[in-house]
Structures are given as structure tokens and as C-alpha cells.
Amino acid sequence: MNKTAVITGATSGFGLAAARRFAAAGWNLVLTGRREERLAQIKDELAQASVLTLVLDVCDTEAVQAAFSSLAAPFNQVDVLINNAGLALGTEPAQACDLAQWHTMIDTNIKGLTTVTHALLPKLIETGRGASIINIGSIAANWPYPGGNVYCGTKAFVEQFSLSLRCDLAGTGVRVSCLAPGLSESEFTLVRTGGDQEAYDNLYKGAHAIQPDDIADTLLWLAQLPAHLNINTLEIMPVSQSWSPFAVKRDQ
Ligand code: NDP
Ligand code: 8X3
Predict the structure, then answer these.
(1) Inter-axis angle of helices 36-45 and 13-24, to 10 degrees?
(2) Tell me, what's the pLDDT at 186?
(3) Which ligand 1 atom lies nearest to the CA of residue 17?
(4) Alpha helices, DSSP H only, in 170-246?
(5) How far apart are CA 94 and CA 170, in angstroms?
(6) Where are the alpha helices (DSSP H) in 46-148?
(7) Which residue, by CA, sits nearest to atom 4 of ligand 2?
(8) 15 pLDDT more than 80
């Protein structure tokens, strides 16, 4: 029987690329996102696979709980949950940030991810051995940078939550991984900058950034690992990206 993956945020970037990869590998898919038209396009494109699309805002707790408690066959046995929906808003220093944007990042990247996880945990535990939760973290969790403030904080939560979940799920057979990419080319940057195409072009120019297909390949690899293996945290950067010295602000 085909396995089923639930992918949040499947309307673009990593989630869309993963949907294509998993469909090509024969998985059943539950794909979610807020943009209905895009979900309809993806369903058409992946017509060879069993695909259920759910228009779902991960910040809407009741809608998430209702959608995942009423999954019908073949989608009611969940093998893999990819908690991918997320966003960054703004690149300003903390003292210049918009509080509403901070709250949206917390609501989406932390509360939304935990709501989806809570709703699907019983099904994943029912599946047991070989089931996986793969949370999309970021290098931003461990490598702070100016303007990262709350976004970095949300991704640090994702990494710690992933590790802590492993402790609680010991004995259930359910695996938990945190996949933490670095500079990756996707709509993420347009969302973050409020649609600034020039900022997008400048960020990715000459950087040979990670592509969504690279992350999709890694996600499928994680999902298909032998059931006795758990990758805890996996950090990926493009070769062009590395670290700088600490900043030291000197008196003039
Ligand atoms: P995209 O902007 O291309 O994709 C983000 C996805 O999240 C979209 O499908 C969007 O769907 C969905 N989403 C956002 N908010 C919500 C919400 N409230 N409810 C449901 N779905 C939502 O970006 P990426 O593919 O790059 O990002 C995917 C994940 O990877 C994010 O968690 C991001 O933080 C993380 N990441 C990205 C990196 C990068 O450099 N690009 C690097 C490291 C991590 P819709 O708008 O239709 O709701
Ligand atoms: C996104 C990567 O470096 O823009 O999580 O924070 S970064």
C-alpha cells in the first residue's frame, strides 16, 4: 500500500517541490496552504497521484483540528508529517520592527506548527514504526544575524521542540527530524521583503543558493530511511555560504 505524507505549505517553495518528489515516488499526499488556486493547480499537475488538498491556515486551530480529524482513506494512515509552512517578515533591527509581523511569525512558525503536530500525533503513533515528523527549521536557529530577531527565535523553537518530541515519542517508533536549510531560493524572500524583487535578485545573485528541489530530495531521503534510524538535526548550506567574524562595535 502507498504511504501518505502530509505537507503543510505546499503551494510554493520547498513544500511544492516536495509534493512533486513524493508524488513521483508513489506517495499519497495531503497538501495544505492558504492559496486555493495554487492548490487546485497542484492537484491537476499531480493527477497521477492520490492527492487531497486542504485550504488551511495553520494559525486557525479549529480548522486544523477539524481537517485532520476527518481524513478519509487512503489519507487516514499518516506516515510522514512535513511541518514546512512558515515565513519570515521583515529584515529591520528589532527596535524598528512591526509588532504585528513578529506576532504573525510566532503564530505561524511556532503555534501553527505545534497545532498541526498536536492534531496529527495520534495518527502518527497509530502508524508507529517508520512514521516520521520532519520539521523545517533553519540555520537561523543557531546562527543569529542582524534583522533575524524573532524569525531566528521561532526556528530555535522548532529545533528544540523537535528534539524534545523525540524524548516523548521514545518507544512509539515515530521519528522526529529537524531539517535546517540555509540560503535557499524561493518566494520566502519576496514574502519577507513585501515583494521586493530587487532585494530578491541581489540576495541570490551569484550565490548558487539551495533550490527547493534540493530540499525535496533531502526530505524524501529522510522519509525513506530505514525505520531504525533517526536523523535528529540536519543543517544544509550552499557552498557559497559560511560564517563571518563576530561583529565588534568600537567606540570612535
Ligand atoms: P515559500 O514562501 O516559498 O513557502 C512557504 C509556504 O508556507 C507556502 O506554501 C505558504 O502557503 C505556506 N504558509 C505560510 N504561512 C502559512 C499559514 N499561515 N498557513 C498555511 N500555510 C502557510 O518559502 P520556503 O519554501 O522557502 O519556506 C518553507 C519553510 O522553509 C518555511 O518554514 C521557512 O521558514 C523555511 N526556510 C526557508 C529558507 C529559505 O531561505 N527559503 C531557509 C530555511 C528555512 P500559502 O501562502 O498558500 O498559505
Ligand atoms: C531562512 C534562512 O538565513 O534567511 O531560514 O534566515 S535565513
Answers:
(1) 20
(2) 98
(3) 25
(4) 188-192, 197-204, 212-223
(5) 38
(6) 61-69, 99-105, 113-127
(7) 183
(8) yes
